[in-house]
Structure of Transmembrane nucleoporin:
Amino acid sequence: MFSWTGYELWYRIAYLGAIVSYGVVIYKSFGVPRTDRAYVQRALMDENVQYLVIAVYWCSIKPIALTLIPYVTFSLFHLLTFTRTTILPSMVPGSQGADGTATPAGGNLSKTIQAWVKENYDRAMRFVSYAEVVIFVRVLVGALLFRNSLIAPLLYAHFLRLRFYMSSFTRAAFQHVRGELDQLTQHESCPPAVRKGYLMLMDLVTRYASTVLSINKGQPASSVPSSARTGAASGSDSPADPTKLKTR
């Protein structure tokens, strides 16, 4: 039952905020929605659209608080970047002293925020990638225990499949988790039945994940998104995450 009281109220307000933010970003990127095939294909392979679709789904079902972690993390970087690029410059304009020393717009606080974002961006994206793996485990177990719909793990599995192709952080998280599980199941104390079940599951996951995706013709499926490459190469302080808002 869809509820707008208590904890569920704040949960849905948080997701409505995320939906509006993603909607604005997508509108700026793609313009007015169209129904032609080229537009739909390009939109569905966009990270913002993927996160928007998942946000709409999470908002419409019984609350699962764990699913908010990626959105809260992205929002923190958005807030810091918006504060540095828009709020602080309006409060502390750039100036030049009598001795010729220039004071940048935003002052020292702006520099501090810029340095913190640069230093912690990769760490935050790795955290989000592992969180998304944990979220999948949660909704999969929840489906088996009838705590959430079977649609949840199926939809999220497809979402993670897209993230695996488009995000080096997600690939690294999955590879690390698989390495740890391989070690656990290869240990002599692991029951043969568990080992066999694990191998069957890994074979199924590998087959599903290795299905060819038509991201861009001529572009390797394992490549990093251009936005991430640009941000890394230029040393930009604005996070190259899927929900980056253009504040200028």
